[in-house]
Amino acid sequence: MTVTVPDSALADTVLARLTRLYPEAGNPFRAQEMVAYMKGVAPFLGVRTPERRALSRLVLDGVPRPDEDDCTAVALRCFALPEREYHYFAVDYLRRHVKHCSSGFLPVARRLVTTVSWWDTVDHLAAHVVGGLVAADPALAAVMDDWIEDDDLWVARTAILHQLRFKQATDTERLFAYCLRRSGHPDFFIRKAIGWSLREYAKTDPDEVRAFVEENRDRLSPLSVREALKNL
Which residue from 208, 193, 118 is spatially nearest to 161, judged by alpha carbons? Predict the structure, then answer.
């Protein structure tokens, strides 16, 4: 599905403020440290998180509540900018306003997941944005069944993590099936996601997670097992 950037006067205002205030607060030395910490995934302006969030409040001061087109425009335009802090702004913005988005926003979320992909944006998109959309429309779980099969490891990781905040509403059959489906994946980020998703659900039902891990210990990687049982 083609994802386009809609016209949005709200996004025009937000991006104008954002691209003025964020660079003014940048620090080139701190930016180098951030690039190194994030393995060079993207350039940084060098704005620390507390300062960035304070600036974001200024950016959004007096701005009306967005509709879905506004959310789409803000997110896609931020992710089109090179510096990582703009991507963080978009993720924070969507976390706050995903409840105003319909199921039709899911392709936009996928575009963001697959743009400059790394754990620092993907994990929040998975748990808060994609997860929020699926929680609001359980029919989207069928799309997650497609995503878990995706060759893009970040799309598959998103499918594994999308129920991270569901607690008692977790579809355990789907969660466990996803963990087993990708248990043989060689990548660290998939194996870590499997363990993390199980560890988080263990806060709700530790006995079920313990039983699942013991039954499937020969199929799960040592990393996944270790992460799943860390707090049990």
Answer: 193
Task: Please state, in angstroms and rounded to a whole number, the distance separating the CA atoms of residues 224 and 232.
Answer: 14
Q: Between the CA of residue 63 and those of 17, 56, 67, 75, 98, what are the distances in Å?
A: 11, 11, 12, 15, 16
Q: Tell me the C-alpha distance between 232 and 229, whole Å.
A: 5
Query: What are 111-139's pLDDT values in tens digits?
Result: 999 999 999 999 999 999 999 999 999 99
33-62 pLDDT tens trace = 999 999 999 999 999 999 999 999 999 999
Q: How far apart are CA 199 and CA 53, in angstroms?
A: 29
CA distances from 124 to 90, 106, 153, 165 (A): 11, 14, 16, 11
Q: Above 80 in pLDDT, residue 1?
A: no
Q: Which residues are CB-neighbours of 98 under 8 A, at least 6 positions away?
A: 71, 105, 128, 129, 132, 133
